[in-house]
Amino acid sequence: MKFRYFFISALGGGVVAALAVVWLTEREQPADYITTGTSENELYWSESVIPTSPLPPLPTATLDLRPAARRATPAVVHVDARVTGRDRATVKALFGREEATGALGGEGSGVIYSADGYIITNYHVVQAADRIVVTTADRRRYAAEIVGTEPKSDLAVLKIDARDLPYLESADSDLAEPGQWVLAVGSPLGLTSTVTAGIVSAKGRNLSILRELDAIESFIQTDAAVNPGNSGGPLVDAEGRLLGINTAIASRTGRFQGYSFAIPINLVRRIADDIITYGSYRRALLGVEISTLTAADIERLGLRNRSEGVLVEAVLPGGAAAVGGLQRNDLIITVDGRDIRDLPELTEIIGRARPGDQLLLTVVRENKTRQLRINLQPAGN
Q1: Is 231 an annotated catalytic residue?
Q2: Mean pLDDT over residues 103-119, rounded?
Q3: Which residues form the PDZ domain (predicted)?
Q4: Which of 17, 250, 297, 347 has the fewest Cβ atoms surrounding its Cβ within 10 A?
Q5: Catalytic residue among 187, 231, 237, 274
């Protein structure tokens, strides 16, 4: 009897305790914990409540780069540049290759720019070459001629006698952002039609690899693997659109070490279109000597709340800047509403402009902002 009593008492106590817990739970449930009628298990937290357990993981997005690779690969070519009848030491220094037959030259990549046979590559791929052979993705070989070059941006345009060639739609490189997926396509180390993937790491990089003082360097930095032979090939976005021209790597070994650099397509297109139309790039000039703002400049000029921009170091007499009222020690902070953080951004904008274009500059002078309209002049004036 005593055992039965204890059992019944324990059972009754458990039932009472369970009912009490349920009752207290319902009373103490926070008002911000909301159940919806859409699903038995669908629960939402309002913004004012921090859940004590992790939220369900977000769905994993699946990125498939195969369509982009299929679009890009047919428009990429292998460029074989040979040299005959030139000083051997000079040519070998330029190209770094001497074959057993005694021929001198270099090789790289290119991208078909139009269906009628115009091809874009790097200037350093074809520099000094007098015989160029282009091989398409379907292994057709064409003799190519140089239409024009722009050494100050390391670009060249070739032409082959062909029609109905596949070419790529251009992206807007201004909209490229760090973290977006990209593909590099080309012929690294002689391996044709090679595709590598990575992300945009940064924009507006200046590597000082072009020797001219007025060179245009504003590279897209990526971590897509690029090696010798990739030069001149395309950088494409995840939709297979042309985003840039692969040009350089940062390396201590001569091979890829995690950083590659491409000329943005908005600049490439501006230069290539001029070369195709006129035979050369018609460059616009601002008529100034400029540099990225430094801490020493900020202290010297007593600038307040300014840490970025491009400083005018000198204004050339009679140039576009002088006529428009730009002065030494002016700090350029925007051009046509676009923020200017450093030198590469400004040189790219000027490089994409045409002679006669008018730019609206916002400058800081003696800690006061003002706007100036500058009518760009053609190079040579």
Answers
A1: yes
A2: 89
A3: 287-367
A4: 17
A5: 231
Lookup result for tokens 């449930």: 29
- CATH fold group of domain 284-378: Pdz3 Domain (2.30.42)
Domain segments of the chain: what residues?
66-160, 173-270, 284-378
Residue 361: which H helix or E strand, with range?
A: strand 358-365
Higher pLDDT, 358 or 39: 358
Q: Which one is catalytic: 124, 153, 193, 330?
A: 124
Q: What is d(CA 126, CA 143) in angstroms, rounded to the nearest whole number?
A: 13
Write the CATH number of the domain with boundaries 66-160: 2.40.10.10
Bridge partners (DSSP) of residue 157 are 120, 148
Which residue do the tokens 């005018």 mark? 312
If DSSP codes are grouped into helix, strand and coil, which group holds residue 353?
coil
Indicate the class that CATH gives domain 173-270: mainly beta
How far apart (Å, rounded) are the C-alpha atoms in residues 262 and 244? 5
- CA separation (Å) from 47 to 41, 43, 44, 245, 321? 19, 13, 10, 46, 53
DSSP letter assigned to residue 114: S
Residues for the chain: how many in total? 381
pLDDT of residue 76: 97
Q: What is the pLDDT of residue 58?
A: 57
pLDDT tens-place string over residues 363-377: 999 999 999 999 999
Instruction: Note the pLDDT tens digit of each residue in 65-107.
Output: 999 999 999 999 999 999 876 555 554 554 444 444 444 668 9
On average, the pLDDT of the chain sits at 83
What does the alpha-carbon distance between residue 194 and residue 87 come to, in Å, rounded to a whole number? 33
pLDDT at 212: 80
**Among 78, 80, 153, 154, the one annotated catalytic:** 154
Amino acid present at 52 = T
Token pair belonging to 368: 């006061």
